[in-house]
Protein: Histone-binding protein RBBP4-like N-terminal domain-containing protein
Organism: Paramecium tetraurelia
Amino acid sequence: MAANQDQIFDEQSQEATINEEYKIWKKNAPFLYDLAISHPVEWPSLTVQWLPKKETPPGQDYSIHKLIIGTNTADNEMNQLMIAKVRLPKDSDVQQDPSEYKQNEPSGIGKATGESRIEIDVRINHEGEVNRARYMPQKSNIIATFTTKGEIHIFDYIKHPSQPSNNLVKPDLKLVGHQKEGFGMSWSEQKLGHLVTGDYDGKLCIWDVETNSPEPKQTFQANNLQIEDVCWHRFHPEIFGSCGDDRHVRIWDTRKPSPLSDIQTHAGDIYCLDFNHFNEYCFITGSEDKRINLFDMRNTEKPFHTFESHGDQILSLKWSPHNMKIFVSSSADRRCMIWDFGRCGRAQTPEEAQDGPPELLFVHGGHRSKVCDLDWNLNEKYIISSVEDNNILQVWQLGAHIYQE
């Protein structure tokens, strides 16, 4: 009984701490952000990605962007793949005086002109939870999802009605090759229709969606443990990476049966990896050990640099599509952090060092539970979307005065 009471007290104390931290963040947010929107969703989303196109309505002071999210429901509720419409002020890349901000629920902090908001534009019935959803780079209307049964479902979302009329699930194509569910999913930017996926049984599948074949083009067996993430290389169409619960990162060439590199430098499961958009040799990995490792593919015996500031496991990370040296990470510690490896080794005052290492550019503290996934907006610099476990979708942009320092 005493143990249960102690646990209840600890949970209540932690919740009180989280709420107090959120109040402090909300109070200071107008001085730190050019944009911050916090939008409640009916169910948690494990996945988020900006679609690449934006609309600019004539005569309006805002532009319209779209996000891919999905549901993680309970009690046999129908799951859905969803497209959210996000209205952003046109001048979102211009710093403004904090006095020009206003706060409004549930949107959060936006410009006094061109008020921002989020609404669900398309709902498509989905079989089970949407573990991961990603669009094809060459055809952004084509979206792949990883289901809890291990199937990969392909949707052409513009062919589906904006609201389902019944409970039928009708993907445009089902890809069958995995026996277990997974989260690893990446489209090739070099080869039209090529998709790599990794499951919780250590199996990797390469698909060619353009052929409409339900079977994988190739398969690889990384291990017998969970694969957590996969990523195609952005310069070499045959190269991709995988990582997982065996604490290994593997670099694969589709022309060879065994990995080109097998890297083990983390002290915990590895949950995410990403290849740089500008430098063909750079990639990063995030782990249960709370560390992010930066690697040079020409020498993978040890990391080029290790980034440390998160207080819990790293769940997602993405290189900036606009700056070679910048990436963002999310964690179970409720934080998103923007890093600039060009600042590594920069001299700091003792006061600056208390806030973190010099390469830590910004900490987003607006979430109150673990941050499952995040993504950079391709059209607007430093605008990021992030989703947390507590039914919240956020869109935010750090203040220009921070990244222009």
Observations:
- The chain is about 10% helix and 45% strand.
